[in-house]
Amino acid sequence: MWFRRKEPPFERPAPPAEVTLAAVAYVRNGVAKPRPRGWEEVESTVEVLPEYAPKLAGIAGYSHLIVVTYLDLAAGAPSKPETLKLASGNTYGIFATRSQLRPNHLGVSVVELRGVDGGALLVRGLDAIDGTPVLDIKPYLPEYDARADARIPKA
């Protein structure tokens, strides 16, 4: 007779308090300092480190990517505000803004993929300055990433 062995319940280990990440690429675009607006037309090259270049296989078939960056200059900023007053005049908590002055200084951008040249991704709309470390690159999938019911606060 066949008896199925009961698997013990999964117990998640405690999550780490600190996380160490390494760059997989760097941004190249000639933009020297951070700015709050005007990234829509900026063309950048995401130079993938040689050891990660094979992981780009198949990426040219996508029109858009999600690029996760470490906003390294923000780490040295003297002010770490709880809130920001935006151009609209409204005040929002830092998590309700796209500011780089976040606790972990992560940037997430949806960019247009304009081409692939070996280990270099040519993109438009990446809001990161020249030399910014890239932590991850993912394909943009409209069925998961676009939300027709999304809303934003009124100005």
Quick recap:
The chain is built from 1 helix and 8 strands, in the order ββββββββα.
Give descriptors for this structure.
155 residues, mainly beta, Elongation Factor Tu (Ef-tu), domain 3, 6-stranded antiparallel barrel, 3% helix, globular
Can you describe what's shown?
The structure is a single chain. With 155 residues, this protein is mainly beta. The chain has one domain (25-145): Beta Barrel (Elongation Factor Tu (Ef-tu), domain 3). Helices cover 3% and strands 30% of the residues. The chain has 1 helix and 8 strands. It has a 6-stranded antiparallel β-barrel with strand order 1-2-7-6-3-8. The protein has a two-stranded antiparallel sheet with strand order 4-5. It is globular and about 70 Å long.
List the helices and strands and how they pair.
Blueprint: E1 25-28, E2 43-48, E3 64-70, E4 83-85, E5 91-93, E6 106-117, E7 120-124, E8 133-139, H1 142-145
Antiparallel strand pairs: 1-2, 1-8, 2-7, 3-6, 3-8, 4-5, 6-7
Q: Approximately how much beta-strand content do the residues carry?
A: 25-35%
List how many beta strands DSSP finds: 8
Order of helices and strands: EEEEEEEEH
Count of discrete structural domains: 1
Distance between the termini: 69 Å
Q: Structural class, judged by helices and strands?
A: mainly beta
The CATH superfamily is identified as YaeB-like
Shape, please? globular
**Helical content, roughly?**
under 10%
CATH top level is Mainly Beta
Number of distinct helices: 1
Major sheet characteristics: 6 strands, antiparallel, barrel
Low-confidence stretches: none
Q: What fold name goes in the CATH topology slot?
A: Elongation Factor Tu (Ef-tu), domain 3
Strand order of the largest sheet: 1-2-7-6-3-8
Gross CATH architecture: Beta Barrel
Mean pLDDT comes to 91
The Cα radius of gyration reads 19 Å
